[in-house]
Every structure is written in structure tokens, then in C-alpha cells.
Design brief:
It is a single chain. Mean pLDDT is 87; it is low at 1-8. A hairpin with a 5-residue loop joins β17 (319-325) and β18. The strands form 6 sheets. Strands 10-11-12-15-16-21 form a 6-stranded mixed beta sheet, with helices on both faces. Strands 1, 13, 14, 17 and 18 form a 5-stranded antiparallel beta sheet that branches. It is globular, with a radius of gyration of 28 Å. It has 4 domains: 2-54; 93-181, PDZ domain (Pdz3 Domain), CATH 2.30.42; 187-394, 2-enoyl-CoA Hydratase, Chain A, domain 1, CATH 3.90.226.10; 399-532, no CATH class. By secondary structure, it is of the alpha+beta class. The chain is 41% helix and 19% strand.
Length: 550
């Protein structure tokens, strides 16, 4: 192995030196070749002299990743062993069982089973623990290794050893792998007699067709208004953003223009087909993680004054990537252009690094924003993301709610609830009763869900800082008394935050009976964005006012 590395490095160095000798000193290519020469000789010396054996795959990838990290966040190197996952992201297809499996309390557990796919057909349920795959023990396997074991050729069989709540002994479940096509529109349906809702989670192949079919279906069901939910959608294929915009925008309209280093490669994308409906009142729900292609669709709807955006500012990713094939079946995903929506604005955040903890765009000074106009004359701005026409504040969960979720207690209780009750009825109307919530509180009696509030953390930090100073005994005593009061109040958090905890628990429970549909439908009654949209539809004058220049 060492001899092979040495021969390869000698050959690379010989070629670099040969080309470098012919390259003019003032040519940019000379600088490139010089630095490649330095890199190659550096690695040669490392490999020969370093105290421990080096793994060339790991070390070189670290170097590549560090180099790309100095550019934008979306130019990435994809090694051969990650190509399959990358293809899944772009095509939405893979060979598998159609279930999400992750570790819960150290055990590989089914978090979701997709209706109509092998796992669901074979009877796997949310909460089932998979302890073996084809007689291979999973106790020490990583999530990536388990994912690899679950995937495989279509029509190939796989045997899972499953442990289920309420059963004494594990049992085998035989599943036949199939070609799994991840749905871009996992749900569409009527919220009430007049409002149709569709959730778009990806922009893989056929996303435009799925949205088109969903809108037609909703109209056939009597929808007089449409909610398009783009919250949490990270984007994907640019062409699909054009196809989705085309559902609501006339044929021949500009959707997006890409501009890069080479003017000859700049391109304008226009709608190519007849729309489904250009008149039906439309509300698009956006959030801080609505990114890329999601922002194109949201921005286009806003620029043409076609509908109202409700929610929060989008992520701020206005860069276009293409994949370039490298040697040894690896790929480079490289940013080649920025995209501009019809008003002329670019959605890309001005500063890649200035982001909030959730990844959303940080505060941008007004002086750095440029004003543009929608086709109806409304003022819109660039600088990072698309601003909603009707803002709705982000809901911040209480510390106890986060703790119950992080400790998987909501998840486990929902599993037990499912096996103790046959049905919950229509998920749109499902609510836990007060007595059922009290049962949940009793169930928590011997469970660990310890947590620190923000105030407790700040008091703790203050006390640590004060220990280094003199004559602060009285202040420290006051802080300790305040800390004790907070701990006493925490004992009532299950009651004080009852409404919020119940809502989260209802979603988990509904998923056991109705899978993804249950989570979405049970949340309608408590979703602040959806409720804001419904109020706007009930007030056509307010809806119309938001679409007119002030």
C-alpha cells in the first residue's frame, strides 16, 4: 500500500512539475499548479514521516471539505460511498421498505411507516423496535449502517426481528423491498367545506405533477380557496419550482433567471404549460427553513401578486448548484449561479455566516436592503429570504415540552395509548380529555425528564462568576433563593403548559392511527399559521388589501 501511494505521488509530482515548467509566471494557472505541487509534496512528507499510520481517504477528504468550507455552504464534495444518498435526495427514489428507522433510547425504532409501502403492508407499526436484520444484531450498529441494511434491490426479501409493546417475545416480520418513491406532496385534503390544503415537502422529480394533481383534486372536492404549505421544505430541483409556479401562473411568464460567471450560461426559465387556476384565492405558508426552490415558488407568487404569503421570512438561499462528475465515481456539487425572481431581486442572504441558531437569516441592516416592486406595485426587498405579507410569530416551546420530547416520553406514551384504545375518530376533531391528560401526568411519575429553564441557567452562570469575587455572600444567597423558587414553580409546569403539551401529545397519538395524515390533520385546529390563513379567507377584503400597493 505504501509503495502504491509513493508511486502515485511521484507520478502526480512529475506531471505537475512538467506543466509548471511550461506555465508563464504571471498566469493564474501557474499559481494553481504551484499550490497543487505544495499540497502533493506536503502529503508525501506527512505520509512518510508522521508518527501514526494515515488514512488517505479521511485525510484528503478533510482537506477538500476545509477548502470548500471557505466558499459558500452549498458547494460540497460527495465521495463514492455517499452517492446513493445524494441520488435519493434529487430523485426521491430508493430501494427499501418505506419506513423511517432511528435510535430511540439506544434502540432502533420505527418512527414512521409510509402508507402503501412494504413496511406498512407487512404490518410494521410506529414504536416497533427492530433488533435484528437478516439475523444481524443491531445493538452496536450506527443509523447509517442500519439504513444500508434496510436498503437493497427491489423485490429482494428482508427479515426483521421486531419487539413490540405488549408482546412478550420478539417476532419475525418478512418484508419485500420495493422501489420507494418519496412523495413530494405527502398530504392534500379539505380543512373545511371551502378550504383545500396541500403540504409540499420536497422538490424532487415529478413535484410539479403532484402539486398539479393535488390542486385539481381539491377543486373537485369543492375547494374555493387553497393553502400551499412550504414550511420546512428545503428545496430541490429548480425546474420543479418552475412547474409548481406554473400551476398558479399563466403560460409564458418568467419564473426565475440564473446568472453566473459566464454570461453565455445565464438562463431564464418561463412557464411552459397552461395553468390549473390563476384566480382561486391562494395562501402560501412559509417558515425560516423554507429554502431554495421553496423560495422561488413563494417569491414568484408574491412578485405576481398571485397570493398572500403567511408565516415567517424564508431561509435565504438564492444559489444554484450543479453536479460535476469526478474520478472514482465521486461528485462535486458546485455553486454556479445566483437566481433572480421576476421582480429582479435575489433571495440569497448577504452574509453566509450571519444566521440565527435555527439557520434562518440574521438581522439585515435596512441600509443593505434594496427595494424592488411586485407587478402590482408593492414594495419588496432583497438581502436574504422572502418576507411574508402577513407575519405570524414563531412559536417557542416551553422548556418542559422540549424535555418531554427529547426524552422520548411523548413518543412512548403515544405508543402505549395506541395499544390501549382501538380508535380516536376523526383526527381533525381529536382532543385528549382532561382525565386522559391526568393519566399521562400519573404515567410520568417515575420517569426522568429533568431540565433546566433559561432562568436557571443564567442564575447558575451568575453564581459561578460571583464565586471569583469577594463580599458577594448576600447576592449569592438571593440568587439561591430565586433558584429555589423557580424549581418550586417547575413542579407546576405540567399544569401551566398543559395546552401546549396536550397538542404535542395529540400529534404523536394521531400518527399511530393515521400516520402522516394524522399528524397533519390533528394539527389544523392548533396551527397558528393555518388558523391565520383561514381568518384571511373569511375576510376577503383583508386578503385583497394585502395584495394591493399601499
Amino acid at each position: 500500500m505504501k509503495r502504491l501511494i509513493k508511486i502515485s505521488l511521484v507520478m502526480v509530482l512529475s506531471i505537475i512539475l512538467l506543466v509548471a515548467a511550461k506555465a508563464p509566471a504571471n498566469d493564474n494557472y501557474f499559481a494553481i499548479i504551484k499550490n497543487l505541487d505544495i499540497f502533493a509534496t506536503l502529503y508525501k512528507e506527512l505520509n512518510a514521516q508522521y508518527v501514526d499510520e494515515l488514512n488517505p481517504n479521511v485525510l484528503i477528504k478533510t482537506g477538500i471539505d476545509a477548502m470548500l468550507a471557505s466558499l459558500d455552504p452549498y458547494t460540497n464534495y460527495i465521495p463514492e460511498d455517499q452517492i446513493e444518498n445524494y441520488r435519493t435526495l434529487t430523485t426521491g427514489e430508493y430501494g427499501g421498505i418505506g419506513a423511517v428507522v432511528q435510535r430511540v433510547d439506544g434502540i432502533n425504532t420505527v418512527l414512521m411507516s409510509y402508507e402503501g409501502y412494504p413496511a406498512h403492508e407487512a404490518g410494521l407499526k410506529i414504536g416497533d423496535q427492530i433488533i435484528e436484520i437478516n439475523d444481524i444484531d443491531l445493538s452496536d450498529k450506527s443509523s447509517q449502517e442500519i439504513s444500508t441494511l434496510l436498503k437493497g434491490q427491489s423485490k429482494s426479501g428482508i427479515v426483521l426481528k421486531v419487539k413490540r409493546f405488549g408482546t412478550k417475545e420478539p417476532f419475525d416480520v418478512t418484508v419485500s423491498r420495493e422501489k420507494i418513491s418519496i412523495k413530494n406532496v405527502p398530504y392534500h385534503g379539505m380543512i373545511n367545506e371551502e378550504v383545500g390544503y396541500l403540504k409540499l415537502t420536497d422538490f424532487t422529480q415529478k413535484a410539479g405533477k403532484e402539486v398539479k394533481d393535488a390542486v385539481k383534486s381539491l377543486k373537485n372536492d369543492g375547494a374555493k380557496n387553497i393553502i400551499l404549505d412550504l414550511r420546512g421544505n428545503p428545496g430541490g430541483l429548480l425546474q420543479e419550482s418552475v412547474n409548481i409556479s406554473n400551476v398558479f401562473i399563466e403560460k409564458g411568464k418568467e419564473v426565475v433567471t440564473t446568472r453566473g460567471k459566464f454570461a453565455s450560461r445565464n438562463e431564464t426559465y418561463k412557464t411552459l404549460n397552461e395553468p390549473v387556476d390563476t384566480e382561486i384565492p391562494l395562501i402560501v405558508l412559509t417558515g425560516s427553513s423554507s429554502a431554495s426552490a421553496s423560495e422561488i415558488v413563494a417569491g414568484v407568487i408574491q412578485d405576481y401578486d398571485r397570493g398572500v404569503l403567511v408565516g415567517r421570512k424564508t431561509y435565504g438561499k438564492g444559489l444554484v448548484q450543479v453536479s460535476r462528475q469526478l474520478s472514482y465515481n465521486s461528485q462535486l456539487k458546485v455553486t454556479t449561479a445566483k437566481y433572480y425572481i421576476p421582480s429582479g431581486r435575489c433571495i440569497q442572504a448577504i452574509d453566509y455566516s450571519n444566521r440565527n441558531p435555527d439557520g434562518s437569516v440574521g438581522k439585515i441592516p435596512d441600509s443593505l436592503k434594496v427595494e424592488f416592486r411586485t407587478f402590482g406595485g408593492r414594495a419588496v426587498f432583497d438581502g436574504g429570504g422572502v418576507d411574508p405579507d402577513y407575519p405570524v410569530a414563531e412559536k417557542e416551546f416551553a422548556a418542559i415540552s422540549r424535555s418531554l420530547s427529547n426524552h422520548h416520553l411523548l413518543f412512548h406514551y403515544a405508543t402505549e395509548y395506541f395499544y390501549s384504545r382501538e380508535d380516536i375518530g376523526d383526527p381533525r376533531k381529536f382532543k385528549l380529555t382532561d382525565s386522559e391528560y391526568n393519566e399521562f401526568i400519573s404515567w410520568l411519575g417515575d420517569k426522568d425528564y429533568s431540565y433546566q429553564t433559561k432562568m436557571e441557567k443564567e442564575i447558575g452562570q451568575l453564581m459561578e462568576n460571583l464565586k471569583e469575587e469577594e463580599n458577594n455572600d448576600q447576592v449569592i444567597a438571593s440568587l439561591k433563593a430565586a433558584d429555589s423558587q423557580i424549581k418550586a414553580l417547575k413542579q407546576k409546569d405540567l399544569i401551566n403548559h398543559k395546552t401546549e403539551i396536550k397538542r404535542l401529545l395529540e400529534q404523536d397519538i394521531a400518527s399511530r392511527y393515521y400516520l402522516e395524515r394524522g399528524i397533519i390533520e390533528v394539527s389544523f385546529q392548533n396551527d397558528d399559521d393555518v388558523q391565520a390563513a383561514l381568518r384571511l379567507f373569511e375576510n376577503p377584503q383583508e386578503y385583497s388589501k394585502l395584495l394591493k400597493a399601499q
